[in-house]
Write a structure and sequence with these properties.
Layout (H helix, E strand, L loop, with lengths): L2 H50 L3 H6 L12 H6 L7 H31 L5 H9 L10 H10 L6 H5 L7 H11 L4 H9 L4 H12 L1 H16 L3 H6 L8 H11 L4 H35 L1
Helix pairs in contact: 1-14, 4-8, 4-11, 4-13, 9-10, 11-14, 13-14
Keywords: Cell membrane, Membrane, Transmembrane, Transmembrane helix, Transport
Membrane topology: Multi-pass membrane protein
GO biological process, one term: transmembrane transport
Length: 294
Amino acid sequence: MSTEAVSGARARRARLGGRGGRRVLSTLAIYAVLIFGAVLIVGPFLLSFGTALKSPRQFATSSALTPPAPLTAQNFSRLFGAEHNFISPIAVTVQVTVVILVVQLGCSILAAYAFARLRFWGRDVIFWAYLATMMIPSVTTIVPLYGMLTAAGLRNTFWALVLPTLFGSPYAIFLLREYFRSVPADLEAAARIDGCGTLRVLWYVVLPYSRPIIATLTVITVVTQWNNFLWPRVITTGNDWAVLTVATAALQSQYNGNWTLVMAATTIALLPLLLIYLIFQRQITNSIAIGGFK
C-alpha cells in the first residue's frame, strides 16, 4: 500500500474519531440538561414528602435537605385525628371532582359532537362566540357568580361549589370538537345505514375512537377541580364544605411555623393526582402522538 493511501486512511479515521467524540459530547450534554430539568421538577415534590416525614424538632434544627431520621408519621396521624379531621375536606373534594367530571364531560361531549357533525343555523357563530369566553379571566366572573348564588340561597352549599363549571367547558368542547371532526365520516355513514341514530353513532362509533382525548380531558378536569382554590375559598365558610386546598391553606395560616404538618397535607393532596396520571399515562401519550401526527 502506498504512503498516500496510508495517510488518507489515517486522516479518515481521525475525522471519524472526531465526529464520534463530538457525538458523545453532544449526547452527554443533552442528558445533563434532562437530568437538571428532572431534578428541578421532581426535587420539590421529594422535598415536600421528606419534610412531611420529619418531626417538627428535626425540621427546626436541621437543613431542609437533610433526610428524615428517624422517619415519623405523626404529621399524618395529626391530620386525620380529631384535632384537624382532614377526612371531611378529602370527602368533599372527591364529591365535587366526581360530579363535575361526570356532568361536565357528558355535556362537553354532546355539545362538541353537535358543533362537529350536526348542521343548524348559526352553528359556527355560536361555537366561536362560546369559545371567545376563554379570553375572559375567570377572576372577573367571581363577583357576579357570588351575587347570583347568594341571592339564590346557595352560598356555602355543595351546589355552589359545582354549578359554575358543571355544564361544559370551552376548552373541553374545543378539543373534543376538533377530535370528533377527525373521525372518518364513512364509519358514521355505515352506522346510520345499519339503523343507528345520532346518539347511538356517538356512543358506539365516535366515543370508542376518541378514548385518548377523553382520557386526557379526564385527567385535566380532575387536576383542575382537585386543585381549585379561589372559588371554594370565596363561596364557602367554615369547615362543612371546605375542600382540600382551602383546608390546607387554613392549616398553613393557623400553624404558620409547623411546616411539617403543612407538607403532610400537601403530600396527601398530591398522591391521588400521581395515581391518576399513572393510570392514564398511556392514553395521554397516545392523544399527544395522534395530535402531533395530524
